[in-house]
Amino acid sequence: MSAKIIDGKAIASQFREKMKEELKQLKSQEIIPGLAVIIIGEDPASVSYVKAKIRACEEVGIYSRCIRLSGDTTEQELLQHIDKLNQDVQIHGILVQLPLPLHISEKAVIDAISPEKDVDGFHPMSVGNMLIGDECFLPCTPHGIVKMIQHTGTELAGKNVVVVGRSNIVGKPVSMLLLQENATVTICHSKTQNLAEHTKKADILVVAVGKAGVIGPEHVSEGTIVIDVGVNRNAEGKLVGDVRFDELLSIASHITPVPGGVGPMTITMLLYNTIESAKKHLPSVVV
Ligand code: GUN
What we know:
alpha/beta; Rossmann fold; 2 domains; three-stranded parallel beta sheet; 10 helices; 11 strands; about 40% helix; binds guanine
């Protein structure tokens, strides 16, 4: 048996076509969603992620503004930029690309973004609302992962999902979203004993560790859906995931590639959140 490849690029493209239609509608009501992206420094991975986000906005017809700040920008200066964007009526979503230089507090920056424009879903208010299942911007990578699993036609309710990794950006929030979908969720991490014992029980395995090739055939049972969130460079400089993709092709039922898996869906959910944010500014209809 050979695993079906979950083509994130193709799924993203379907979502983006629908968004283009919605954006035309909004334009006719004089609403143009706007996203501001702030990047500090020249980290090559961050620069390339930000470029992809801006390109995606241009492709679907979302107004974007990229603010590139030097690596020695102070926290105060950054907070002033955020404050201005919080008040800018052209901007419905604000994203500060992480990681930040060490002299800037990530917490201070995330807290400064207005929850109404928090299209990353990282503000404590967004995280709290997500946890209790209230309306909020869902974090983009976790939301994209749920959409990709659903795209396979798999019902999440009652499934054993094992998440490897407990970051605030992916591991913890994706676990909460999958729980919301009534999956039985196990979270494994660097202190987990006998990792394979847990991962082998998974119907669906989500791997978000950030280390090339940590998951292989010894961790996966026949027929598992494998979602690889890792983006790493191997010794030859090639982009690879956290999962040994080739070795799992004969074991998994479905698997995401890297690149072309989770990445395009993360950006698509960012576009989605920006459009949803702009829609809140539509004039209310009086009946
Ligand atoms: N760095 C890596 N992933 C992300 C993300 O989803 N949002 C932001 N702001 N920074 C990131």
